[in-house]
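Researcher: Hi, I'm a grad student and pretty new to this. My advisor asked me to get structures for two proteins we've been looking at. I'm not sure of the right format, so I'll just paste the first sequence and hope you can take it from there.
Model: That works fine. Here's the first sequence with its structure tokens right after it:
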Amino acid sequence: MRRRSSGDVLLGIGALVLIIFLTLARASQEPKATFSTPASFDTGRYGYRAFYELLRREGVPVTRFTKDHHFLNRQIGTLVLAQSAFDALAGGPGVSRNDLISIKDWIRHGGTLVVLAPPYGSPEDTLVGIPASKKSKTTYHEAVPFSSFPGMRGVSRIAGNFANLFALDASQKAVPLLQTHEGLAALTYHLGPGKVIVFTDPGIFSNGLLTHENNAQFAVQLFAALPAPVAFDETVHGYGEGQSLWEALPWPVHVAVFFAAFALLLGVVGNIWRFAPPLVSERQSERDSSAYITSMANLLARARASGKAMRDDADCALRAVRRACGVSDRTKVVAFLARLQDPHHREAVLELDRLRDLEKPSDAELLRAGILCSQLRKDFGL
């Protein structure tokens, strides 16, 4: 096997370095794909930065909406929702069905929605009443405005790329705004107290076409007549702000937090400034067994169980006497009474047997039975 010389190795390394260098040089010369979307931050050809600055310069109150759509409220008069095919290529989040439900609820409370997101016809579009659009046979670069709508004064033609159009009879409740020879390029209709304005080309307000005088004049006159402020929806372009923990919590939790904070404030203030002299509790003497006996007596009286308690205690004491006399626990008192030598024991057993048979003993009888039971248990070693 022939050995490779050091010259062959160097030649191979040099060829590899040359290939890598040419590859990097070619990659640096290739134009990089850039995406421009109708966002008010975008300064590209399809961006809306010039549109946003134009409205602000002309005195139209403008702002940017960067939250979830369920935060829409009456503080926003007009919402501009603009999307194009470049949004999908750039990985934009888009508008979900839940977003459109929130937007629809906001419109029904008096909001105005301006939509520039063709083509239309999906089930989500029908949620806010947008009719279906169709691809035009010819791409129209101009649209003629209807002079009856505010914002059309002095505007003859609007420059754009109208590849999708609405049918002339797309909706009976819609009012046409822009038209071509083939169909409608923009229309408006009411949705409850609110209003929806729909365009088939988001590029008519872009940085590239806003240089046309008619487009700029139309933009200013149209949006100056809409409810203020005009908010550009930047959530659909990925500029959404995350919810804070406080915003995510429901309102009952907010109320509970306020109550807890108020209670804590009262506690702190109460420890610093006392509202009354301190209350000194009365010193109680040391308790003896009488307190326990009294509480148990009250418990038995409420339960009406004094008779049963007395019988149980008497049976226990008499059982000790029977065992001391050497008789069965079932032996009657008269049978073993003669075996008791102490007359006091006989009297105590007879009296206790009599008290045992009482159904509802009085307090004095209950106390007497307790004394007898205690004496017999003590004498007979229980």
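Researcher: Oh nice, that was easy. Here's the second one.
Model: And its structure:
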Amino acid sequence: MSNPFSYIFSCLFVLLAHGTMLFNVYFNGSYTDEHQVFIIAAAVIGLDIAYFFLMLFFRQHTYNVDFMLILILNMSNIFQSCFGAVEFDYRHYITSIAALVASRVGYHVCRNHKWIQKQKIFIWIGIAILGAVIFAFTGSRSIWITFEKFSIQPSEFMKILLVLACATSISEQQNKHNVLGFSIVWENVILFFIAAGICLLQWWCRDLGSIPTFMAIYAAGFLLRICYPKAKFSRKTLFIAAGAVLLAGVIALHFAPDYVRARVFVNIWDDTEGDGFQQSRALIAIAEGGWFGKGPGKGALSSVFAHDSDIVFASVCEEWGLLFALMSVLMILILLSAPLFNPPRSYFHGTMAAGVCAAFTAQMALNIFGSCNLIPFTGVTIPFISTGGSSMAASGFMAGMLIAAQSPEFHKPGKKKTTKSKPKSKPKSKASGGSRSSSGSRSTKKKAASSGRRAAV
């Protein structure tokens, strides 16, 4: 480790942040059994220390994403254990550990850009297989695959594959083909149909809230393809692409289901028991929480459906205050800004990081603005803060992609074969057959130089 003092300082900062939150729970929280507070404290501090120790075994260029990840995840564990009453939420704690494990998997999978580039066709096949699974097994136009005791949301993992599909298509931007006066890169055409197919599938599943996230990922990849050296996208192509997107939006709004159009044009205060129920309750909770909140466990929004996922921002505002809710969002933005502090070392990793940042930013914007009634309610989660197994695992994997962008691997480590070289023997003098003294060698050089001059004359 290049700077152990910085590592130790970061560990202490994370422990101090979580310790301050736990003190707030103990002194201001609403609980009947103080043992629950001690259980939460032991789980949070224990996970902190365990992760700090395990990180020592991973050699990376930087650990800033790792520290921000463990900071946000344990903040989320404290939030989720206090909604309505202080009680340890072991399910969210398990999914947080799953997110940490997934981040390690994402880091190792995406480190070597040459290896992942060779898996491009398998990424496309994976998208097709996952789409077929969603179409066949999610039930009656649903977004969940339900088993006996748990359920999976496959579309969350589709985000990972779309980010990788955008990143692996970067290297082909200079392989253009002239078709009817247009310079076309075939992989861009394939990627467009992949993104369009995913959006149509989400529309079929009635998961319209996730479509902006997929569009944000594709838009980030498209922007990076435009900026790729010597890509030279013509203005005609860009105008056609912008017009196609606008036309698709108009068509989607026209053919959207009735409940979607009702959410777009509803006045929540005229329908507080119908389409405006969650947003009206969320706004009331934000207003009652004020800047510093009612206190952990003292919120009333916990009785509203999806208080811990779709409107989690309002739940945090009610119990912890708007100031603390904005601070938690700021932590996620700092995690996403890691590529600005330590620029990725390949164009592939830069595109991958841009896709992850686009996905997380779009999800946060949809959740926060929807809770505040600035846009129609979408039901999209905030990464790492909202509860949910599929969302946490997918978000953790994408955090690992950010770590890989900061600490990429360009050459596979391997043992170099060492060959024993024989010591070179010194050339012997023809005159004596042995070595001469330094003075003798200098006199020989002078004689050879003088004879060479006489021969030249």
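Researcher: Is there anything I should tell my advisor about the second?
Model: You could mention this: The beta strands are 145-146, 151-152, 177-179, 182-184.
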